[in-house]
Amino acid sequence: MPTQNKIAALSYTALNTFVKCPLQFKLKFLDKALPFESSPALEYGNRVHRELELFFKQGRKLGDDLSTMHALCAALKAAGEAPGAKLLVEKAMAVDEAGNKCSYWSDDVWIRAKVDLCIMNEGGAHASVFDWKTGKRWVENEQLDLYAALMFAHFPKLKSVSTAFVWTKTGKMDSVRHVRSDKDRLLSWAMELTEEARIAQRDDAWEANPGFACKFCTASTDQCEEKVE
Ligand code: SF4
Q1: CA of residue 132 to ligand 1 center, whole Å
Q2: From ligand 1's centre to the CA of 202, what distance in Å?
Q3: Structural domain of residue 64, as residue ranges?
């Protein structure tokens, strides 16, 4: 059935879903027709995120199961609480299609994200952003790029930002550094995909891409005849 729901308020996950399977994107993010199914991996991820959030917000001790993160988190907390620095936890950010800051719930919102941890330094001239990853190492630079673009939009004085995935099972990181002049380029991936999704909507042509993505898709065979079971 054609959907007229507006293609807006997109997250990295929504855009990445469109890349993997346009039909899943339509069913999940536009029609909101896919049932939510939890999994042990998802529950574990939520628990770790909550534990880390409480550590940085309230100083609550990390559990032994996060022993890989103890030293790193202590160092990050000290860095964020040093004179002249600022620690932001679960910072929500959004931009409109001009790449300008807007409210997370604005009607104009195009891309939005919450970053797990951000440390502002040098009076806001530099920032480091950290995204906790609880699964196997799999670097998707587009997500780090979007975080950087949102940071530049939200903090006008920001000259450079490092965005990093932190692999909580090992305490290791993958990071990328960006400067303000990168901002338009950082948003180009999202803009191209948004335009592709709008063409798919205009033509009501949502391609199914059966394969690995089906493993994590809750579409029924009525919703998607090409589902790989
Ligand atoms: S079941 Fe597979 S092909 Fe069908 S919508 Fe989901 S991911 Fe796409």
Answers
A1: 27
A2: 20
A3: 12-216
Instruction: Indicate the number of domains in the chain.
Output: 1
Average model confidence (pLDDT) for the chain?
95
Of 23, 26, 218, best ligand 1 pocket probe by most atoms within 8 Å of the beta carbon: 23
Is residue 118 a part of any domain in this protein? yes
Contacts of 40 by beta carbon, 8 Å cutoff, 6+ apart: none
| Of 144, 141, 147, 149, residue with least CA distance to 185 | 149
Domain-located, residue 4? no
Any domain includes 94: yes
Find the 147 Cα to ligand 1 centroid distance in Å: 27
Whether 89 is in a domain gets the answer yes
Query: Residue 166's pLDDT band (boundaries 50, 70, 90)?
Result: very high
- At 80 the three-state DSSP class reads helix
CATH code of the domain containing 58: 3.90.320
Task: State the distance from the centre of ligand 1 to the C-alpha of 164, rounded, in angstroms.
Answer: 30
Instruction: Please report the pLDDT score of residue 129 as a whole number.
Output: 98
Query: 56-86 pLDDT, tens per residue?
Result: 999 999 999 999 999 999 999 999 999 999 9
For residue 224, give every residue at least 6 positions away whose Cβ sits within 8 Å of its Cβ, in sequence order, or none. Answer: 23, 24, 27, 208, 210, 217
Which atom of ligand 1 sits closest to the CA of residue 209? 3
| Ligand 1 surroundings by CB, under 6 angstroms | 21, 23-24, 208-210, 213-214, 217, 219, 224, 226-227
- Tell me the whole-structure pTM to 2 decimals: 0.94
C-alpha count within 13 angstroms, C-beta hemisphere, residue 177: 3
Tokens matching residue 34: 């896919």
